[in-house]
Amino acid sequence: MNDASEPYFHPAPAPPGPKRWPWVLGAVVAVAALATTLTLVLLGNERGGNVQSGAAPKSTGSPCRSQDLKPPCQGVNGWVLADGSYESTTRTTPPAYVAPTTTSLPPLTPADFTLEPKTHSKQCFGSAGCVVVVEPAVTYKGTDTMLGHGMCSMTYDITGDKSGTVTDTLTFVGTSVSVHRSVLSTPSSKTKVSITIVDVSCN
Question: Which of 31, 78, 153, 177 has the least C-beta neighbours within 10 A?
Fold first, then answer.
């Protein structure tokens, strides 16, 4: 009775289950993102391969002037290496010092010259004789240049003076001659004055 008199309550409806469509949507988005990433990676690799394949190929040509040769290439007196540098194969030996040869001239001798008295003035005094002023005139008979002998001196004797032989000296460098006049006292106007070369020496 008591059970029949109690009011009857309908059981509460079961709570709705979890909504599954957001998970499904998330999974679809994740798969799509992964596929996009893989696609971009593949495209990037393909483009990189195209760029690499499109780069200028490494030159296989010979750096030598003649393409038939391989480096190192033989050049003029040397080798052209692969990096373009040049290495000489010629070892230049400095020439040995050779002292300059000087041809020594033969020494001058009295036979290479003639010496004549040149009268500048003459004054006679009858039987007392004459006063004669003479200067030697030099003539070189050799073929080489006198300048090559340096400074030279010539000693000579003058005859005709009353007192006897007069010895004097002149100097010359090349054709430039330095002389001085000699004053003689001769016994007469017919006395012959002559000059004889005694010695020639050069420095």
Answer: 31
